[in-house]
Design a protein that fits this description.
Blueprint (H helix, E strand, L loop, with lengths): L1 H13 L23 H5 L23 H9 L5 H72 L3 H39 L1 E3 L6 E3 L4 H8 L2 H28 L1 H108 L1
Antiparallel strand pairs: 1-2
Length: about 350
């Protein structure tokens, strides 16, 4: 990096053709050559804005050539390569400004945390002060009691009260020490609380600081650098917009803006569609579950009725079999009864006939 910086310095002092021999043909300058810094050709190189500050971007690796810049400025703005350089310049500056916005937000969050801590400190001090007041009142009462006991001649009782007073005084001293530290911390936090974040460069400023220090900050390299960079971004952005309107017409420029907005809208719509799809899937699953439950409830009475019919038919079949069995048994008993009756009758006639013969 040091060699590159020295070479650039020699180029500025002696020209970029300082090493060309007298009989050697000098190569003409072409601003499209990759060795030249695009940002320097457009307006300025951001690497030169914050030198020797905490936001120093370092040394630019490209060559800053005034002749190349002059040639670049002479080219019409409608040149596609020149338009591309402008767009790349805006993209690089946008990354720098995004870092600045994050630093500003971080500074505001830090001040907000300090503010919350400062608000919490008085509550703790107030609680300690209340306890200290209670202990002081108790100590005074006990000292009065000890004095009265000593006057009455009750020395042992007075000594016991004084020992209790000593214990309470120790507790009071223990509370007074943190209170002193809290008061010191409170003053420090109050001093830090009186700060604000610079909306231009993100630096922390003391509210109500001396006018000279405020002017030194406003004229500082960091504040001036970011302020100048914002002005250049607005200027080049308008130039790019006008160039695109000349090349493609206002409709194309508006179309690009609409496409950018539509991309954001599509991104939001994708999120909404995901949520909607999830809701639809949930509703479908819920509806299917409810239908299954309804069909299950409808099927239960049918199954029960079917089971009841089967049970009824089974019972009817058993009853029929039982009746048939009883009918068969009754028929069989009647047949046996008829047989016995017929046999008895035959036997009776036979006996009667034998008696008649005799």
């Amino acid at each position: 990096m040091a060699v590159t910086a020295a070479a650039q310095l020699l180029d500025e002092l002696m020209g970029k053709n300082r090493n060309v021999a007298p009989d050697e043909k000098v190569k003409p300058t072409d601003w499209r050559d990759a060795i030249y810094c695009k940002y320097y050709l457009v307006k300025l190189c951001p690497h030169d804005l914050f030198v020797n500050t905490k936001n120093d971007l370092g040394t630019c690796p490209k060559i800053h050539d005034e002749d190349a810049r002059q040639l670049f400025q002479e080219v019409k703005n409608t040149d596609q390569k020149k338009l591309q350089y402008h767009v790349e310049f805006l993209r690089f500056c946008a990354s720098i400004m995004n870092d600045l916005e994050r630093r500003i937000d971080k500074g505001k969050q830090r001040l907000a945390l300090m503010s919350n801590s400062t608000e919490a400190v008085p509550k703790v001090a107030k609680n300690n002060q209340e306890q200290i007041n209670i202990l002081s009142q108790k100590i005074e009462e006990l000292e009065t009691q000890a004095e009265q006991a000593g006057i009455a001649g009750n020395v042992e009782h007075a000594q016991g009260i004084l020992k209790l007073c000593d214990q309470l005084k120790e507790e009071k001293d223990a509370l007074l020490k943190p209170a002193d530290r809290t008061q010191n911390n409170n003053s420090d936090l109050t001093q830090e609380k009186q700060m604000e974040v610079c909306e231009v460069c993100g630096a922390l400023l003391i509210v109500g600081d001396a006018q000279q220090r405020l002017e030194d900050h406003l004229m500082g390299k960091q504040h001036m650098g970011y302020s100048k960079l914002k002005e250049i971004i607005d200027e080049i952005s308008q130039l790019v917009k006008d160039t695109r309107e000349l090349l493609y017409g206002p409709r194309i420029s508006e179309k690009r803006s609409r496409e950018k907005d539509s991309r954001k809208e599509r991104s939001r719509d994708r999120g909404k569609k995901k949520d909607r799809k999830y809701d639809m899937d949930y509703e479908q699953a819920k509806t299917k579950t409810e239908k299954d439950e309804d069909s299950e409830r409808d099927r239960r009475p049918k199954d029960k009725s079917r089971l009841d019919d089967r049970s009824h038919r089974r019972d009817s079949h058993r009853d029929r079999e039982h009746r048939d069995k009883e009918r068969y048994e009754d028929r069989h008993r009647n047949r046996d009864r008829e047989k016995r009756k017929h046999r008895d009758s035959s036997h009776h006639h036979s006996c009667s006939h034998r008696r008649h013969k005799k």
